[in-house]
Amino acid sequence: QVRLVESGGGLVQPGGSLRLSCAASGSIASIYVMGWYRQAPGKQRELVAAFPSDGRTSYADSVKGRFTISRDTAKNTVYLQMNSLKPEDTAVYCCYADLRQFFGSRRDYWGQGTQVTVSE
């Protein structure tokens, strides 16, 4: 079975930084996209950043210039470096992967999420 496990969340002061990691494991044949969503209480889940196989990363307008997504294809791992954090960045951040297992079809998988809280 495919599993995505996030790490790196926590409490940070405004202006601080955090680095999130997400490792995918299991019988994975190909990963087409890895990325991050976030959801704050009372708000819809939104795409934060995505890293497709062609390397053409994309970001939500609200995080451009502050967040950087990277990917280690060999390790099936994606990272999100978050700098200049703001209180409005507070949310549960969930990793996702668009992938195919051996002898399986292409589909999306999700991690459990990691809490990021930006507060004094």
Provide an overview of this structure:
- The model has no long low-confidence stretch (mean pLDDT 97).
- This protein is mostly beta strands and 120 residues long.
- The protein contains no helices and eleven strands.
- Strands 2, 4, 5, 6, 9, 10 and 11 form a seven-stranded mixed beta sheet that branches. The protein has a four-stranded antiparallel beta sheet with strand order 1-3-8-7, with no helix packed on it.
- Helices cover 0% and strands 58% of the residues.
Descriptors:
120 residues, 7-stranded mixed β-sheet, 0% helix, elongated, 11 strands
Mean pLDDT over the full residue set: 97
Distance between the termini: 40 Å
CA radius of gyration is: 14 Å
- What is the H/E string? EEEEEEEEEEE
Instruction: Report the helical percentage.
Output: under 10%
Approximate shape: elongated
> Strand tally, please?
11
Largest sheet: 7 strands, mixed
Low-confidence stretches: none
Q: Name the beta content range.
A: over 45%
Number of helices: 0
The secondary-structure class comes to mainly beta
